[in-house]
């Protein structure tokens, strides 16, 4: 089944509101093997809504509309739907009761405008809205379903979950779409593509591969379509097993995993504690680690050593001569920071970052983006050099991602 | 000028990625008096892209395309654009140089796939991309501009800011929409609404006011439309002067100001240095402060004291008895942390946070969200209690925002 999502609302077209509704709906539909062919955002204007309804591609058998059902004058979706489906408005006692209850519970009077919301198209199945005043409407015409819902996220979500999705799943029978995503770090999109080209070429025809790159992480999403869920799972998992043998050093997680989440799990499993000594990442690495609920179990704290005097101070104890002879951005200083932090903070592991985040501070030998990351453990210390780019904000993310990936691999 | 935003990408249609690009672009366009008529999200498929280009409404004179320009096989936008504009691909030396530099800086080899990205349509103006390998393309045909940009947010944003928006503004001539935004912190939307009700009621008719709340900050956006820019500016600035007299204690900045940016300016003006001692914010406060380029001039570093042993350790030196008698989340400990950090890090100012970020750790007396923030300076130490909510991620942001606003006001 192919779907169109039609989002109606001025606030989406001025950018004041991000269209999170459409993304949420797409995820729900996907799980029910409904493919979203298009998302269209339009104004709350009669002509625009009319044209969008007329233009729907014949291949589309499901149109999901959100927004434009409120009581105010600029909400005209219901009228246009009546016109399009040649329906007329009739009063619905159940909806009127819902609206009255809604207002009574809030200690307010039902106004005439709200009472008008109990008028529904005679050709639509009404979708009751326990969280607001605008009911949803489900039209069926020539094998196509057209469902209009309110734009308020939690009203729409409850209507989708309780009324729309169960009915769609029933319609779908046993068609399945299965996604499985492999998360990699440490290799660019095009380099990765060349490494796994042979594997990609041999993927079965009903499995599609997509590369989804984002700030140092490349996600490989495998999508399979078929009628037997368990069989699909088997095929996809088999392909992932093959991939694991080709690029074990880059894979760190699957699906909705995060670097900080996987790192936390590994530390917890092994009963180890961690500290951070950050120069270029300026607290961002610790922030990522502590964004995980319960991270205080393994993260004791950290030092942000922006100024060299903090690097050479009592807690990190980096030898001033190291900075003088190698510079603050060097293997030697990164390793000394990690060793110092591990000792000073009494942890099992310590990770240190030092680099030139930019935009200033670059030199010919050490351009902006030059970064060293070191890890100290009971086994000693090891470090890695990175050459990131020119963008300060991006460099922080790349450095933190690299540091967490290094930690995860060292805990394997 | 009316615009269509065409977002290309499978990940947007499966809901894996929320279309924040389109919202950001719409906001930019709005500032330049360009009205977004429609946002359309489609698959990375030849037929879909082709059809969308053919279907563009005649009233649309600007089409902005993002996505589908990457080096991998599933990116086909460039081909379809060539076909649509009857163009052919020609090598572009400048783009090839950019791509080569991009890879060289990262210590990587240029692959054949990436070299292919230096092939550009002969009928397009090339938009160079300093942050990635896919250049943008600007076509002009029959009075309509069609601009294709990469889908990676920061690549697209820099291209829009530096190349696309200046050119569009020039095209727009003298129709003006003027936005001016007043930034407040420390007061909720509805409380603020009541305080400034009288002022709002007396705004001139051609000035609109919008409340834009976001995590502890309420932005008040004034919008004026007209043909005389200087006159518009005068009217809006006059209204803002009146507002400043009503709520001086809540206003901390204007327009694109950030708390971290304003804080940095104030510290720089006064020649003061700052350190942080963070418990609940776990590095996020330092991250916000160091996200400003050049922050190393006034930020020396900081301590993340997640574990109480770090709070009572050599650098902060909080008395263990304070924690025993008042708890780690208390005025006494927050103030001791700030005083200890200021002394240990040898700075003019120190700010400390301690709180229960959640989801765990709450008690009846100190529920999740309870937070203390303290500032130490040469004048001594002062602190403030906050009761935030149940959401861990949101609590971090609220605490960091409150800490920076406290610092800004203390530097007035």
Strand order in the sheet with the most strands of chain A: 2-1-3-8-7-6
CATH topology of the largest domain in chain A: Molybdenum Cofactor Biosythetic Enzyme, Chain A
Give unreliable regions of chain A as ranges: none
Number of domains of chain A: 3
Specify the CATH homologous superfamily of the largest domain in chain A.
MoaB/Mog-like domain
Query: What pair of chains forms the biggest interface?
Result: A-B, 87 and 88 residues
The CATH first-level class of the largest domain in chain A comes to Alpha Beta
In whole angstroms, how far apart are the ends of chain A? 43 Å
Radius of gyration of chain A: 28 Å
Largest β sheet strand count, sense and barrel closure of chain A: 6 strands, mixed
Average pLDDT of chain A = 92
Number of helices in the DSSP assignment of chain A: 16
Structural class of chain A: alpha/beta
Number of beta-strand segments of chain A: 17
List the helices and strands and how they pair.
2 copies of one chain form a homodimer.
Chain A (H helix, E strand, L loop, with lengths): L1 E7 L1 H4 L6 H12 L3 E8 L3 H9 L7 E5 L10 H8 L4 E3 L1 H13 L6 H5 L2 E3 L3 E3 L8 E6 L2 E6 L3 H20 L3 E10 L3 H7 L1 H5 L5 E8 L2 E10 L2 H18 L4 E4 L4 H12 L3 E5 L5 H7 L8 E7 L2 H4 L8 H7 L4 H15 L3 E7 L14 E8 L2 E8 L4 H19 L2
Parallel strand pairs in A: 1-2, 1-3, 3-8, 13-14, 13-15
Antiparallel strand pairs in A: 4-5, 6-7, 7-8, 9-11, 9-12, 10-11, 15-16, 16-17
Helix pairs in contact in A: 2-7, 3-4, 11-16
């Amino acid at each position: 089944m192919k779907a169109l999502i039609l989002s109606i609302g001025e606030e989406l077209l001025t950018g004041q509101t991000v269209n999170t509704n459409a993304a949420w709906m797409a995820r729900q539909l996907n799980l029910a093997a409904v493919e979203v062919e298009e998302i269209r955002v339009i104004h709350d204007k009669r002509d625009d809504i009319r044209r969008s309804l007329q233009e729907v591609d014949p291949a589309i058998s499901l149109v999901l509309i959100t927004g434009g059902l409120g009581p105010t004058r600029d909400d005209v979706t219901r009228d246009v739907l009546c016109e399009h489906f040649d329906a007329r408005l009739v009063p619905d006692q159940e909806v009127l009761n819902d609206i009255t209850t809604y207002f009574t519970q809030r200690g307010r009077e039902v106004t005439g405008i709200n009472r008008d919301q109990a008028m529904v198209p005679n050709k639509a199945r009404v979708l009751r809205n326990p969280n607001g005043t605008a009911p949803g409407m489900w039209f069926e015409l020539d094998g196509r379903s057209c469902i209009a819902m309110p734009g308020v996220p939690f009203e729409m979500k409850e209507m989708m979950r309780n009324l729309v999705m169960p009915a769609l799943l029933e319609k779908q029978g046993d068609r399945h779409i299965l996604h499985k995503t492999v998360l990699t770090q440490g290799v660019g999109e095009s380099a990765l593509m060349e490494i796994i080209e042979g594997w990609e070429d041999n993927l079965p025809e009903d499995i599609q591969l997509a590369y989804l790159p984002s700030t140092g992480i490349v996600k490989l999403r495998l999508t399979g379509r078929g009628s037997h869920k368990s069989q699909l799972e088997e095929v996809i998992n088999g392909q992932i097993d093959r991939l694991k043998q080709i690029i074990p050093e880059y894979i760190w997680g699957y699906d909705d995993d995060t670097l900080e989440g996987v790192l936390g799990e590994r530390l917890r499993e092994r009963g180890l504690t961690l500290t951070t000594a950050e120069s270029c990442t300026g607290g961002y690495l610790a922030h990522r680690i502590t964004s995980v609920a319960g991270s205080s179990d393994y993260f004791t704290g950290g030092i942000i050593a922006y100024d060299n005097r903090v690097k050479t101070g009592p807690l990190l104890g980096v030898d001033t001569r190291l900075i003088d002879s190698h510079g603050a951005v060097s293997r030697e200083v990164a390793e000394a920071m990690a060793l110092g932090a591990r000792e000073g903070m009494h942890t099992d592991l310590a990770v240190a970052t030092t680099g030139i985040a930019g935009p200033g501070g670059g030199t010919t030998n050490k351009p902006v983006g030059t970064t060293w990351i070191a890890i100290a453990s009971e086994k000693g210390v090891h470090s890695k050099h990175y050459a990131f780019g020119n963008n300060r904000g991006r460099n922080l993310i790349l450095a933190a991602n690299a540091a967490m990936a290094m930690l995860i691999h060292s805990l394997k």
